Please model this.
Amino acid sequence: MRDGGHPFRVRRAQSLTGLDAHRAGVERLLASYRAIPSNADVRLAKKTSNLFRARARTRAPGLDVSGLTGVVSVDPQARTADVAGMCTYEDLVDATLPYGLAPLVVPQLKTITLGGAVTGLGIESTSFRNGLPHESVLEMDVLTGSGDIVTATPEGENSELFWGFPNSYGTLGYSTRLRIQLEPVKQFVALRHLRFDSLDELQTVMDRIVNDRVYDGIPVDYLDGVVFTETESYLVLGHQTDETGPLSDYTGENIFYRSIQHTSVKHPKTDRLTIRDYLWRWDTDWFWCSRAFGAQNPTIRRLWPKRLLRSSFYWKLVALDHKYDIGDRIEKRKGNPPRERVVQDVEVPVGRTADFLRWFLAEIPIEPIWLCPLRLREPASAGASAQRPWPLYPLEPKRTYVNIGFWSSVPIVPGQAKGAANRLIEQKVTEFDGHKSLYSDSYYSQNDFERLYYGGDRYTELKKRYDPDSRLLDLFSKAVQRR
Model:
């Protein structure tokens, strides 16, 4: 434990870029768009990505988004922020916390951008009450495939684009500015780690908390969980508070996911973090994926610079592995087969969670597993379909889902089709009436993919309207063919 400083004192004060600077950034973006040959694919010119999909290399110049990385303005009275599309959540949080405000959903990793989370989905422990990041967007400016920047709102001229933009992954355009809602946050988050030796009981309690938003008489503001085995799983309940007390620090020697574990089912373990440390509790170790780089070995960790205990640095290590096949070379020297990357987030209805987890634990040798319940926000705008307001990722309103995240690799079995484990997971997710996020490898047939992700004719109609010359890749080409 440690005594914390002021909880709203951020890593560095994130200055607001202002409207003039934002307009200059948009002009550079448009100039770069016009410089791309008409027969070349349009892509962002950026060095980092939170996608795990490989993609074909291109020599064409990319879109210059260097002027679209900041927070344009914050309105603390209206509790809104105007944010450039390439602004990271780390910078966004640093700009809003001094006002005692935060985005309604803050995805787990610091370098995820707001635009990326809206067009490619995002989730976190507020999603059981606040839905997904795109649901707190009030309006957005989008550079479409036609080279125009249009403003999309729930009920305006471009409302079809507003509702169809989430899960389009840049195939309909790129957001240049988003106005989002913010919510008040308190100084600290008090945590309770509930242990379960039964997945069915975990499922029941999780469903009840989502509906009641309270547990044992204490409000629940944040909710996620971790499964280690069929007989050891946890729900982590967070409650906002201004009450001071000893604080934990998981930005250095201590590892957050290990702190969750304890032996007593009847007596929850408790903890306390500043609001900022809570929001980034998973980033220090990229959940638990830092162990693949030895960063959880106590000896190595003592020597590892604290500033490099963050997801952005692990991404650089992953890039080196992809470039030089380091992991497969090591496995070969050990006499082991190469490994298939299984890095996925899926959503299944809450009532199917325990059954899916039992299947997964029996068939896919990966642990731990992250759980994050979610429900679409209510009420949806009048401009949305009453049944499925977001057509490209059709979760049903008033229904609770659980995001199940697993990020590792499994041995490749000789003779099996490429991506055998991922293909099996895709099949099972569909059988469980679920959906899979598209930030990583996908192996669907084109017919199955279009049935699951095109919203009937909605995506095709949007593509014709906002990218009539097909300057941008289509969703199947980008997500499955990895072009």
The domain at 19-184 is CATH 3.30.465.10 (Uridine Diphospho-n-acetylenolpyruvylglucosamine Reductase; domain 3).
